[in-house]
């Protein structure tokens, strides 16, 4: 697989692997199946896994740590801290205090069974705390050799500029896909002006862009999409028109809607690394095949024109979740 560079020198595969769903949020999980997906990912050339301490909580890092210990695969690990949850509860608080981040980093290192985290993100920014203080804490962790690169999630362009002035930020991670393009207005141009890479999560619109969901689709127990506004029946019925456009162009191109959505995103710039998540080998293989596709300028223009007439209905998170966006 081709590689891309985040920031000045973090080389990773062009398509990473989001591991969150192997622990929660998308229905039941099966550790043995997840380990098989991780093994297959390595076989396919993926060397960039994305996780967070709050996935599980903690289960996801422990799963990846188990895989790394057993396989010895040379994987670059990105993990995150800043969202605090109690086991068995979704209710959360944001904590970017120096004491918490230091403790969280040490705990992540132990769960992952590694000596240094390749890319350490602030999962959500604590709005009441100066970002300069948070960056000083992360810079200290880097000087101590516990992390190699610093990242921020779902930040505003202003926050990124302030953070980068304290210490270089290697990557910003935010949602980006054919139905979530807010970052194109300010954050992507700011990343490019500063030389910061961009990691795109939910590049398949949490599965909606694949065409697997329609208005009235049912979800397994524990699947948080059932609570998301865009998946609510009335909004999903409107958003199906967008998926139909993707499906039509994919059919003409001889690929799946998921592959078209990923190929389009990969074509938005060599500084962008999508991290689609899956807990099934067949979807992993489908996603990786998208790296061999190219969306031409005319195809991209046609897609942009079609989608510009189809507004997306519904917020991407609940009101509580949206509080952490663009901080």
What report would you give on this structure?
- InterPro entries: Aldo-Keto_reductase, NAD(P)_OxRdtase_dom_sf, NADP_OxRdtase_dom.
- It is an enzyme of class 1 (oxidoreductase).
- The structure is a single chain.
- The protein has 327 residues and is of the alpha/beta class.
- It has a single domain (3-322), classed as Alpha-Beta Barrel (TIM Barrel), CATH 3.20.20.
- Helices cover 39% and strands 14% of the residues.
- The chain is built from eleven helices and twelve strands.
- It has helices spanning 31-43, 59-71, 98-112, 131-143, 157-166, 187-194, 233-253, 257-266, 281-289, 297-308, 319-322, and strands at residues 3-6, 10-13, 17-18, 48-50, 76-81, 83-85, 92-94, 119-122, 150-153, 171-175, 197-201, 272-274.
- It has an eight-stranded parallel sheet with strand order 3-4-5-8-9-10-11-12. It has a two-stranded antiparallel ribbon with strand order 1-2.
- Helix 1 links the parallel strand 3 (17-18) and strand 4.
- The longest helix is centred in the C-terminal third of the chain and has 21 residues, at 233-253.
Fraction in helix: 25-40%
Strand content: 5-15%
Low-confidence stretches: none
Instruction: Describe the global form.
Output: globular
Compute the CA-based radius of gyration: 19 Å
Enzyme class: oxidoreductase
EC number: 1.1.1.65
Domain NADP-dependent oxidoreductase: 15-306
Keywords: Oxidoreductase
């Amino acid at each position: 697989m081709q590689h891309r560079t985040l920031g000045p020198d973090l080389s990773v595969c062009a398509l990473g692997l989001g591991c969150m769903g192997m622990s929660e949020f998308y229905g039941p999980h099966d550790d043995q199946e997840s380990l098989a997906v991780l093994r297959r990912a390595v076989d396919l050339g993926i060397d960039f896994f994305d996780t967070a301490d709050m996935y599980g909580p903690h289960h996801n890092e422990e799963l990846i740590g188990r895989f790394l210990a057993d396989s010895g695969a040379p994987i670059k690990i990105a993990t995150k801290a800043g969202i605090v949850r109690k086991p068995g509860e979704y209710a959360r608080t944001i904590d970017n205090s120096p004491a918490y981040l230091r403790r969280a980093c040490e705990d992540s290192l132990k769960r992952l069974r590694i000596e240094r985290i390749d890319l350490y993100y602030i999962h959500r920014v604590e709005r009441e705390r100066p970002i300069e203080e948070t960056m000083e804490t992360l810079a200290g962790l880097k000087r101590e050799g516990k992390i190699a690169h610093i990242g921020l999630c779902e930040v505003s362009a202003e926050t990124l500029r302030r953070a980068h002035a304290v210490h270089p930020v290697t990557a910003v991670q935010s949602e980006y896909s054919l139905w979530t393009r807010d970052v194109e207005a300010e954050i992507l141009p700011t990343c490019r002006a500063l030389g910061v890479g961009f990691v795109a999560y939910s590049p398949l619109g949490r599965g909606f862009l694949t065409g697997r969901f329609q208005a009235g689709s049912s979800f397994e127990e524990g699947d948080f999409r059932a609570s998301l506004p865009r998946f609510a029946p009335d909004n999903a019925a409107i958003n199906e028109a967008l998926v139909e456009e993707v499906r039509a162009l994919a059919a003409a191109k001889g690929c799946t809607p998921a592959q078209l959505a990923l190929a389009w995103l990969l074509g938005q710039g060599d500084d962008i690394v999508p991290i689609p998540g899956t807990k099934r080998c067949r979807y992993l293989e489908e996603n990786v095949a998208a790296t061999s596709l190219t969306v031409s300028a005319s195809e991209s223009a046609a897609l942009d024109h079609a989608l510009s007439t189809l507004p997306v209905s519904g917020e991407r998170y609940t009101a509580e979740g949206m509080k952490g966006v663009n901080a």
